[in-house]
Amino acid sequence: MTRSELTRRGFLGAATGSLAFSYRQAKADADDRPAVVDPRATDGDDVREPAWDERLTVTVGHDGKETDLVGRDDKVIQAALGYVARLGGGTVRLLPGTYTLRAPVVLPSRVKLVGSGLETILTKIPSRTVPLADDSDWYDREITLEDARGFQVGDGVVLRAKNAHNGGEIVLKRTLVARSGNRFRLDSGLRENLWLSGKPTCSALFPLLTAERTSDVVIEDLALDGDKANNENFNGNYAGCIFLQDCNTFTFRGVTARNYNGDGISFQISHDVVVERCHSHDNADLGIHPGSGSQRPLIRANRLERNAIGLFWCWGVKYGLAEKNRISGSRDYGVSIGHNDTDNLIRDNDIQGSGKVGILFRDESRGKDFWPNRNRVEANRVTDNGPEDGVAIDVQGKTKDLKIARNLVRETRGAKGRTGLRVGAEAGAIELTDNRFEGFSKEIDDLRSDR
């Protein structure tokens, strides 16, 4: 068996939502040792685990009739997750109701968080931003606010400032853990200078669900509402309804991510992430954001509606699959793929009603070869995208080695100045096979001089 086949097996294992850690099991099969057919629970061995019939389940709800823990905020959910994680993993079940968060719910490894569909809603308090009243140095673990009204111990916050040395942006996510008046202790040190010269602020902003350096997590059947009308924008490289950083083997299934003033679902340098049958809609920025360096994402059968960009492949996202998604009403782009995003397959999706372009291959000219090369776009339906002089599929820069095959690209609003496929003047080899174009002024506009 080849290494690529092993990787694929692990990827599909993650897609099932199993907590059996299939990816690491597959890696262990890379030689000719006898197969493990009847594993035992052995201390320290988390690669081979028996398929237990039952694991611990803790139920959380608004009253004590059918619940183990009673509450309606982040604290009770966090307590339940911490309890099952301490005992080796298990399930936290959220009963119907609205849970209003003052801090993000942090997901530990080997847990499953399950709701009751759209009847289980996680939302957040309105954001408030205030200036800092005193300098804090990089080694400090405290801040002082000009006006602490509305802030409490336990709150999740973001601290932002300009770097006094180079003018760059500082963004730090922290939790307030102790207080004396307007002075707060933080859960961890700053490691950045928050000097008044950089106009530092503190905001009640955070992702609703988040994790860092954890693995083997399943989230199913709940709704995340970012209360966009009462919260300011928070960049998707730091937050969203869901935000992961440096994680592995996460599965999101049947999750609604809506109304966040930022991204719906964002994951950065996180591998073998599965987003399946989710609904990400009406977010200010990106519907699903497979972020920098994320390997082998599987994005399947989701609805991405009325976001700025439906599906945004960030930097260096490779070996991913996006299929059977319905991407509609994106204000800018339905699908955007760019900086070193290579070897991905975009297949059997419906992409319609994008404000600018249906599928965009971005121009990434800042490096030797940062373009989105060796990607495949197959059997998609790309309908009514862009303005009157717009383009349905736009291949920019020196993008090369694409395969665009068996797609139906159509325009029902009138041909006007619309183009089905545009290939930029510097683009490399592109294979076009059995595509059908309907209703355009120009089906293919190939700007390469040798064509």
TrEMBL record:
Top-rank taxon, per record: Bacteria
Domain Right handed beta helix: 229-365
Protein name in UniProt: Right handed beta helix domain-containing protein
Organism: Singulisphaera acidiphila (strain ATCC BAA-1392 / DSM 18658 / VKM B-2454 / MOB10)
Organism classification: Bacteria, Pseudomonadati, Planctomycetota, Planctomycetia, Isosphaerales
